[in-house]
Amino acid sequence: MNFKALGALAGLALLAACSSTPAPAPTAESSGAGATGAVPGSEQDLVADVGDRVFYGFNEATLSSDADATLGRQSAWLAKYPSVNVLVAGNTDERGTETYNLALGQKRADAARDYLVSQGVATARITTISYGKDKPVAPGNDEAAYQQNRNAITSVAGSNPQS
Questions:
Q1: pLDDT in tens, 101-150
Q2: Around 31, how many Cα atoms within 13 Å sit in the side-chain half-sphere?
Q3: Other CB atoms closer than 10 Å to residue 101's CB: what's the count?
Q4: Is the pTM of this model over 0.90?
């Protein structure tokens, strides 16, 4: 008889445990993370909440209206996190000589930097580099890959977005 009573109590305990409401999961606000769950001011926050890259036309280093919009969000983000420094890396597609692509990549990085500076970001907070065609983000040798590889990528200084 004790076994039946004990079994019944165990069954009731299991039913009670199954019907209880689970503890709420921590929210982004309670964990100190941004809307996307990224730590505010981090590389992940920049990528997810703002956008880290702008794209260029073939043999171009001029900013499009889409690039202006992305860089505008980056400048606002940098104003929100004044202790964050960034690296702007200019990239090209695989066509052209190494020398030409390094120069074009630098022009792209400089164009993005100049836009950020025009929006009030201190020049000392921005470092530029050209990778030319050495660090493609999209594999392949077709126009779709070329379009993705013609870019300038902004990253939080000290992180490595193209590893």
A1: 999 999 999 999 999 999 999 999 999 999 999 999 999 999 999 999 99
A2: 12
A3: 21
A4: no
The total of other beta-carbon atoms located within 10 Å of residue 117's CB is 14
Q: What are the pLDDT digits (tens) for 15-26? A: 444 444 444 444
Written in H, E and C, the secondary structure of 71-95 is HHHHHHHHHHCCCCCEEEEEECCCC
Cβ proximity of 106 and 128 under 8 Å: yes
List the one residue out of 62, 36, 30, 63 whose CA is nearest residue 49. Answer: 36
- The alpha carbon torsion through 113, 58, 73, 157 (nearest 10 deg) reads -50
CA distance 33 to 40: 6
What distance, in Å, lies between the first and last C-alpha atoms of the chain? 68
Under a CB-based contact definition with an 8 Å cutoff, are residues 118 and 71 in contact?
Answer: no
Domains in the chain: ranges and CATH = 38-156 (3.30.1330.60)
Query: Dihedral of CA 74/79/81/82: which sign?
Result: positive
Mark 123-155 as b/e (b = at least 16 C-beta within 10 Å). eebbebebbbbeebeeeeeeeebbebbbbbbbb
